[in-house]
């Protein structure tokens, strides 16, 4: 039933949001249990599943929001201008991502400039001079926009062919194209993060120091952009897989058949992803095809299980925490990032002669009474998740749902 399907998607999204809050907010980023950190390069940890799960559910909701909606008179309607709606969402998401990258909007050291440039304006200009262009919301914006455009009037067969085309083309580009300035094809450089074709494209697109305009990648110490150009195109395939899943879940087949079918196909994706990973490493920063299939498969198995579990239990009390996290994912992400930045960089405490952020301070205090550093760091992360559960539960209780529309 439709209610089962929507609740299952909200529960899946809620689990993903809670996992995002947990892995993004360690008290001490250097003291983290291995599943709660990203792979150093190749590989896939629990943490590496969070972002593709987001894109997977973005694809599902892309399909759901494109379906006719019933009015109070019982008549179904479609968005009169879906292209404009999609463009508006893309611009809003990308813009919010840029604002998050700019937060708190100033640098401690002001940029050099003429005498009339005030100190406050100088700090703001300094921030803009090295503002990161890409990011999580920017990738969601671009991948969503492309997926919505490619799938709007396409049959499921055509969407499947587009996914295959994206992944195979990206594989060929990463491995067969000679990387400029490296004297080797991509296949020989996949183990070296700064020398891949993807890294070269990112530097060409966002390293503007040659024009005197600053470095606009994630970090000057990292020679590639984690949410870069080519990998964002590949991430579009993850969203498109979500679109196909959304179409399957909204079919007229019995719910049990839909859940079994989704689970079966998802297991197949996992197997293909693992086999493909033998020749094309499973890699999140590169968002390789093997990573796409593996993570989409895991997401599909989880969603199928949730769909079967939720059936007939839509009002169960044990679903409420996941639903609270799942109903306002944008508030959870943007709000948590803003709060985390304030706690880390603005509210500081003096310990052992050094000023440290709040999460680090709590971790150090717990360590001082004998708590293992990783446990102490995790304790702060769990407290942060609990804080946001309280906020999101209050919003759900009051019927507040904010979406990008």
Account of the 3D structure:
Helix content is 61%, strand content 4%. It has helices at 2-24, 50-66, 82-102, 119-129, 136-151, 156-176, 197-206, 229-249, 255-276, 289-310, 320-327, 329-346, 358-368, 373-397, and strands spanning 69-70, 76-77, 178-179, 184-185, 348-351, 354-357. It has a two-stranded antiparallel ribbon with strand order 1-2. A two-stranded antiparallel sheet has the order 3-4. The protein has a two-stranded antiparallel ribbon with strand order 5-6. A hairpin with a 5-residue loop joins strand 1 and strand 2 (76-77). Mean pLDDT is 89; it is low at 70-77.
Give a short synopsis of this structure.
With 405 residues, the protein is mainly alpha-helical. The protein is built from 14 helices and 6 strands.
Outline the fold blueprint.
Blueprint: H1 2-24, H2 50-66, E1 69-70, E2 76-77, H3 82-102, H4 119-129, H5 136-151, H6 156-176, E3 178-179, E4 184-185, H7 197-206, H8 229-249, H9 255-276, H10 289-310, H11 320-327, H12 329-346, E5 348-351, E6 354-357, H13 358-368, H14 373-397
Antiparallel strand pairs: 1-2, 3-4, 5-6
């Amino acid at each position: 039933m439709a209610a089962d399907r929507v609740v299952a998607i909200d529960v899946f999204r809620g689990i993903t949001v809670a996992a995002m809050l947990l892995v993004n907010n360690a008290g001490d980023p250097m003291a983290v249990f291995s599943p709660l950190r990203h792979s150093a390069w190749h590989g896939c940890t629990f943490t590496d599943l969070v972002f593709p799960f987001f894109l997977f559910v973005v694809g599902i909701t892309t399909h759901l929001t494109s379906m006719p909606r019933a009015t109070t008179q019982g008549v179904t309607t479609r968005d009169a201008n879906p292209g404009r709606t999609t463009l508006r969402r893309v611009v809003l998401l990308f813009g919010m991502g840029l604002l998050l990258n700019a937060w708190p909007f100033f640098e401690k050291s002001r940029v050099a400039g003429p005498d009339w440039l005030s100190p406050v304006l100088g700090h703001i200009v300094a921030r803009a001079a090295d503002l990161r262009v890409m990011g999580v919301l920017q990738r969601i914006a671009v991948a969503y926009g492309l997926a919505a455009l490619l799938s709007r009037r396409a049959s499921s067969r055509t969407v499947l062919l587009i996914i295959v085309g994206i992944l195979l083309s990206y594989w060929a580009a990463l491995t067969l194209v000679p990387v400029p300035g490296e004297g080797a094809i991509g296949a020989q450089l996949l183990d070296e993060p700064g020398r891949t074709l993807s890294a070269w494209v990112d530097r060409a697109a966002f390293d503007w120091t040659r024009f005197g305009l600053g470095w606009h990648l994630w970090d000057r110490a990292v020679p590639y952009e984690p949410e870069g150009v080519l990998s964002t195109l590949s991430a579009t395939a993850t969203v498109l897989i979500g679109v196909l899943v959304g179409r399957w879940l909204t079919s007229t087949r019995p719910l049990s058949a839909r859940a079994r079918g989704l689970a079966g196909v998802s297991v197949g994706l996992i197997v293909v992803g693992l086999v493909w990973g033998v020749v094309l490493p499973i890699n999140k920063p590169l968002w390789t095809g093997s990573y796409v299939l593996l993570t989409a498969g895991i997401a599909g198995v989880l969603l199928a299980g949730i769909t079967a579990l939720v059936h007939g239990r839509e009002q169960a009390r044990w679903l409420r925490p996941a639903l609270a996290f799942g109903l306002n994912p944008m508030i959870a992400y943007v709000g948590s990032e803003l709060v985390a930045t304030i706690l880390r960089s603005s509210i500081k405490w003096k310990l052992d002669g050094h000023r440290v952020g709040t999460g680090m301070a709590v971790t150090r205090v717990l360590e001082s009474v004998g708590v293992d550093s990783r446990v102490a760091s995790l304790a702060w992360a769990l407290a942060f998740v609990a804080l946001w559960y309280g906020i999101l539960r209050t919003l759900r209780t009051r019927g507040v749902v904010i979406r990008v529309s």
